[in-house]
Amino acid sequence: MAHAEIVRMSEDALDMEALRRAGRILKEGGLVAFPTETVYGLGGNALDPDASKKIYAAKGRPSDNPLIVHIAEWESLFPLAAEVPEAARRLAEKWWPGPLTMIFPKSDLVPYETTGGLDTVAVRFPDNAIARELIRQGGGYVAAPSANTSGRPSPTLAAHVEEDLGDRIDMIIDGGQVQIGLESTIVDFTEELPVILRPGFLNRQMLEEVLGEVRIDPGLLKEDPSVRPKAPGMRYRHYAPKARLAIVEGRQESVCEKIRELVSAREGQGAKVGIICTEETRTEYPTGLVRCIGSRADDTTIARHLYEILRDFDADGVDYIYSEAFDTPRMGQAIMNRLIKAAGHEIISA
Ligand code: AMP
Ligand code: MG
Questions:
Q1: What CATH number is given for 244-349 in this structure?
Q2: Nearest residue by C-alpha to atom 7 in ligand 1
Q3: Which residues approach ligand 1 with their CB closer than 6 A?
Q4: Contact 214, 196 (CB under 8 A)
Q5: Which atom of ligand 1 has the smallest separation from the CA of 231?
Q6: Ligand found nearest the CA of 236
Q7: Tell me: the pLDDT tens digits for 46-61?
Q8: Ligand 1 centroid distance, CA of 40 (Å)
Q9: Where in the chain are the domains?
Q10: What is the pTM (predicted TM-score) of this model?
């Protein structure tokens, strides 16, 4: 396939001509990557089984890992879901459009190719204006996983999409850096109580403010790696850089000291070593390739840069990466969920 056409636009200056063309590509069964507020998505027509198959092929994604269906109007939910509980309506009222995916029993309209063979469907109404206009132009139902090669860190810049999928898709819409940088929070409404299947920008407390009691999928808790997560995608080693990544946790001074020690030991063996630190600790590391991920005082900055930093270390060809742990109150759960998977559960206590 020829290299993808790349078009640039911003949310407050939509290129309607390009979006109409992108919509036509989707309606004809092609693939378009586009920005959302969470990460870049790889879009295809969610109601076309062949388009879903193309998405799996382009990403190299296992076909039992279901796709999220993106919509651009609240009313578009009803043809997809066989049942929408009252609690889901309340949550949507507060957080749609936004970084929230909800799971419902699926209707016959949704092909099994899109849901990875499941009888449930994941639906999201994104907030990004480019994404919403593309969905409208493309017929209203766009299946879109993250626009990366399966197993690599999710894309937060159009350049990441081009690097992974430039030769495999029809168009990339470049809308600049995404705002959030981690995938949507997934809430399952097919059980007795709502269950968080994937943490994200919306944390448990924010969900409970609307829903009352919310459970966390036991498969997500790091204390118990033997329980399988319910969301198939959360079972794979994921988001991984090429280097070997380890997380160091403990009190801040002990963490810095431990990382200095690990880095100098690896450097002594001739290895190239990267360090992920924060504004608060950036002066603590005299050697190693030090990258500041953001500030603990505003942990949304840490979330926004996580995947980009992992990709940048890949480009530098480091052999090892040591990262501080980020158990921050607001987004710490979502950040650590991704970081622990990227590290293949390698956690060192300082
Ligand atoms: P991605 O689109 O790459 O962010 O991944 C979508 C995530 O949603 C994966 O972890 C999927 O396994 C999960 N997912 C999508 N549909 C369902 C569903 N019907 N039930 C459970 N998990 C789902
Ligand atoms: Mg993904």
A1: 3.40.50.11030
A2: 233
A3: 65-66, 68, 103, 115, 118, 120-122, 145-146, 183, 186, 197-198, 230-234
A4: yes
A5: 22
A6: 1
A7: 999 999 999 999 999 9
A8: 15
A9: 5-221, 244-349
A10: 0.96
